[in-house]
Amino acid sequence: MRRFSARLAASFILPLALAACGDDGGTADSANGDTGDTGTDPDGTADSGGVPAGCAGPSDVDARVEVPASIDGDTTLTCDQVHVLTSITFVNSGTLTIEPGTTILGGAGSALVIDQGAAIDASGTADAPIVMTSINVGAGPARGDWGGLVLIGDAPTNVGTGSAEGFPTPPSYGGDDASHDCGTLSYVRVEWAGNEISPGNELNGITFYSCGTGTAVDHVQVHMGLDDGIEMFGGNFDADHIIVTGAADDSLDCDQGYSGNLEDVFIHQDPTVGDNCLEWSNQGNDFVATPLTSPSVTHMTCVGSGADGDKSKGATLKEGAQANIIDSVFAGLTNEGIVLQNQATQSQAEGGSISLAGSHFCDGAAFVVDADDEDPDPAGWTSEDFGGWVVGDGGATDGTACPFASASWGSPDVSMGDGTPTGGSGYAGAVDPAGDNWTTASWINYGV
Length: 448
Prior knowledge:
This protein is 6% helix and 30% strand. It is mostly beta strands.
């Protein structure tokens, strides 16, 4: 098994050092995602900068090592080094193991890609999350500073074999292995990603291409991405405890036959930018292509952009997608609660394959059927018809504010306690009022 140990060349250290000198003394800065220097307190615990004992933080320039552009065979990234992506790194084979507490910094034009013949084991912990962030952390990071994380598998899609978006030379994805294992992501945070390759051709924070049921995803945050937060192209893995904050486009985008179950989800849109909390579509060229996109989300809280937003919406369902949005809460939306497009999607609703049971639209929201002259398959419903169907299906337009402890951008606490809307499981939204408030845990970064 390989372990990277070579220090960065002197010619590369200087620009990285300049990019990292936003802190004085290398201390932690939660507002920009900097978790500080390595070091321990006298009792051996992690230092006050938030970096686990024995691990290096992004300000540790001397601990930086460059990640190769191509990785073959089992390889480990250790937390005592800061691993720097300088290009699009492809893991071609074996398992890339990333130790708890490891920091990975992405430079311009870089990304980390786990190809079909490889897998990732990024198993962090609540006290030692794995952080993939911008090389400019500490010196003014921005959306799109680097590409993000891409996992590519062989599970089915409804396009057969596809070509991945966002690459100068696109890798292929898709196959017939429904159990394909792309690997494990647990207590992982991806920040400031979404590099634009060309206009309209960006990577997302995390992109899952055809990842199957062997893939394990829990306690993952994507923060301040340039394009979508998380997008699934086909595949059928489940995920839980997911946070998407500040995505400039859609927060959770599912298409091409993705059919997994998502549970315990918190989405918070930037007050000025962001499109759908959910955009779920089947396939643009064939609305009845199988497998149909049919995700389920249970116990989600979506807080929109509010009065100063632009595109902010709760969900857009289109192209014949099926959908279950169960025991969830939408609040603070600038525009529509749910947008339905295409007759194929209306038919899914009429046939019982779309459900909003137990979900609430706390501030009141419109339910809109969206069609234009270029729609090849316009829905027959009016918006009034759709709104009546939503309420009749068990979705509620409460019209009153959700009693969040705080919906403040940058410091949210979406627990609700007394007054929590009810759902089929007893409560609606991401936080169980009788349980732990997992959305305020220390592994999460809301700083902007």
